[in-house]
From TrEMBL:
<keyword id="KW-0963">Cytoplasm</keyword>
<feature type="active site" description="Cysteine persulfide intermediate">
    <location>
        <position position="196"/>
    </location>
</feature>
<keyword id="KW-0820">tRNA-binding</keyword>
<dbReference type="GO" id="GO:0005524">
    <property type="term" value="F:ATP binding"/>
</dbReference>
<dbReference type="GO" id="GO:0005737">
    <property type="term" value="C:cytoplasm"/>
</dbReference>
<keyword id="KW-0547">Nucleotide-binding</keyword>
<dbReference type="InterPro" id="IPR004506">
    <property type="entry name" value="MnmA-like"/>
</dbReference>
<dbReference type="InterPro" id="IPR046884">
    <property type="entry name" value="MnmA-like_central"/>
</dbReference>
<dbReference type="Pfam" id="PF20258">
    <property type="entry name" value="tRNA_Me_trans_C"/>
</dbReference>
<dbReference type="Pfam" id="PF20259">
    <property type="entry name" value="tRNA_Me_trans_M"/>
</dbReference>
<feature type="domain" description="tRNA-specific 2-thiouridylase MnmA-like central">
    <location>
        <begin position="204"/>
        <end position="269"/>
    </location>
</feature>
<keyword id="KW-0067">ATP-binding</keyword>
<dbReference type="GO" id="GO:0000049">
    <property type="term" value="F:tRNA binding"/>
</dbReference>
<feature type="active site" description="Nucleophile">
    <location>
        <position position="104"/>
    </location>
</feature>
<keyword id="KW-0694">RNA-binding</keyword>
<feature type="site" description="Interaction with tRNA">
    <location>
        <position position="129"/>
    </location>
</feature>
<keyword id="KW-0819">tRNA processing</keyword>
Length: 346
C-alpha cells in the first residue's frame, strides 16, 4: 500500500533571470510543490524605455511555463518605494552611501515576500542567490566571483530556516548549462546590472529628482588645501570615488577622501590617503550565537576579506590599512567562508 506523501511547498522569487529560473527548475526536479512569484518593482521614472520589469515578468512567465509551475505576480512597488528607495534618498541626503541591495533583501525578499508566502501556505521560500546553506547557517557560494553572502548579513535564524538557495553549490557557467538542459528560454539572458529590483540606474540622475543640486568647492589635500574644481552637491559623491568629478588639473589619480556636508566641500587625495586602520560599525546582526572578535571582514562587495578585530563598542580594527571605507555601507563578518553577520559602517 502506497503511503500518500504531502510535498513541501516552495514559493520561488522569479525575477525573469536565469539564476532564479534554474532555482525553480531544480526544486521542481527535487520533488517540491513549486510556485513562482514575480515581485513587481517600484518605477522611479515615468519612462516606457526604462520600464524593464514588464519584459522581466514575460521572461519569468515563459520560464515558469517550461518548468510547469504557476507564476503569481505580487505588487510590492509601494513597499519598495518606502523601504528601499526612500531609505536611499535619506542616506545620501545625510552624506552617507547606502546599500540598497542589502535593504532590499532585508525588507522585501526575506521580509515581505517571506511573510506573505508563509501566510499563503508555503513551507519555504527560495531565491536565486549564490550562497550556501548548511543547517541554519550561511556560507559563501561555490562560485566566489558570484557569491552574494555580502548582501545577506541581515537575515535571522528563523528567516534562514525557511529559505532555500538551490544554486549556491553551482558556478555561473554550470547554472547556464542547467538552464539549457531544462530548455529554459532565458538560458542566455544577460545578468542584470543595477539597483536591486529597479535595474540599471544613473544614481546621480535619480538623486537629482529628490535632492537639489548645490554647487561647491573641490579641494585637494596636501601640505595646503588647494581648490581644483567644483561639484554640484556633496550628496552625489561617495568616499573612494575617482570618476565623474570636474577637476581642473592633471596628475592623479585622485579620489574622494572626505566630505563636509555643512560646508558643501569635497576633499580629494591620492589613493594612499583613502586607507585607514580603524572604523566603527553599528546596527550589527549576528547569524551565530556568540559574537566573534577576531574576524574576516569585507567592507565592499567582490573584494577579498581582510583580518580585523571587533570590539564590543563596535570599533573595528584592521590588521592592515583598508581603503575607501564608506559610511552607510556594510561591513560583513566572516570566519573563513562562514557568514557570521555584519553591521553598518558609521
Amino acid at each position: 500500500m502506497n503511503q500518500f506523501v504531502i510535498k513541501k511547498k516552495v514559493y520561488v522569487g522569479m525575477s525573469g533571470g536565469v539564476d532564479s529560473s534554474v532555482a525553480a527548475a531544480l526544486l521542481k526536479k527535487q520533488g517540491y510543490d513549486v510556485v513562482g512569484v514575480f515581485m513587481k518593482p517600484w518605477q522611479p521614472f515615468d519612462d516606457e524605455n526604462f520600464c524593464l520589469w514588464k519584459q522581466d515578468r514575460e521572461d519569468a512567465l515563459r520560464a515558469a511555463s517550461v518548468i510547469g509551475i504557476p507564476l503569481l505576480t505580487w505588487d510590492f512597488s509601494k513597499e519598495y518605494k518606502k523601504s528601499v528607495a526612500d531609505y536611499m534618498v535619506r542616506e545620501y541626503r545625510a552624506g552617507r552611501t547606502p546599500n540598497p541591495d542589502v535593504m532590499c533583501n532585508k525588507e522585501i525578499k526575506f521580509g515581505l515576500f517571506l511573510k506573505r508566502a508563509l501566510k499563503e501556505g508555503a513551507d519555504y521560500i527560495a531565491t536565486g542567490h549564490y550562497i550556501l546553506k548548511k543547517g541554519n547557517q550561511l556560507w559563501q557560494a561555490k562560485d566566489k566571483n558570484k557569491d552574494q553572502s555580502y548582501f545577506l548579513w541581515t537575515l535571522t535564524e528563523k528567516q534562514i530556516e525557511r529559505s532555500l538557495f538551490p544554486i549556491g553549490n553551482y558556478t555561473k557557467p554550470e547554472v547556464r548549462k542547467l538552464a539549457k538542459k531544462f530548455k529554459l528560454p532565458n538560458h542566455d539572458k544577460k545578468d542584470s546590472q543595477g539597483v536591486c529590483f529597479i535595474g540599471p540606474l544613473d544614481m546621480k540622475e535619480f538623486l537629482t529628482e529628490y535632492i537639489k543640486p548645490k554647487p561647491g568647492k573641490i579641494l585637494l589635500q596636501g601640505e595646503t588645501l588647494k581648490e581644483i574644481g567644483t561639484h554640484d552637491g556633496v550628496y552625489y559623491y561617495t568616499i573612494g570615488q575617482r570618476h565623474g568629478l570636474n577637476i581642473g588639473i592633471g596628475g592623479g589619480p585622485y579620489y574622494v577622501i572626505g566630505k563636509d556636508i555643512k560646508k558643501n566641500i569635497i576633499y580629494m587625495g591620492a589613493n594612499i590617503e583613502v586607507a585607514t586602520n580603524v572604523t566603527k560599525v553599528g546596527e550589527t546582526n549576528w547569524l551565530v550565537n556568540m559574537p566573534i572578535t577576531n574576524i574576516d571582514v569585507k567592507v565592499r562587495y567582490r573584494t577579498p576579506s581582510v583580518k580585523a578585530v571587533l570590539a564590543k563598542n563596535g570599533v573595528l580594527k584592521f590588521k592592515k590599512p583598508e581603503r575607501a571605507i564608506t559610511s552607510g555601507q556594510s561591513a560583513v563578518f566572516y570566519h573563513g567562508q562562514q557568514l557570521l553577520g555584519g553591521g553598518i559602517i558609521l
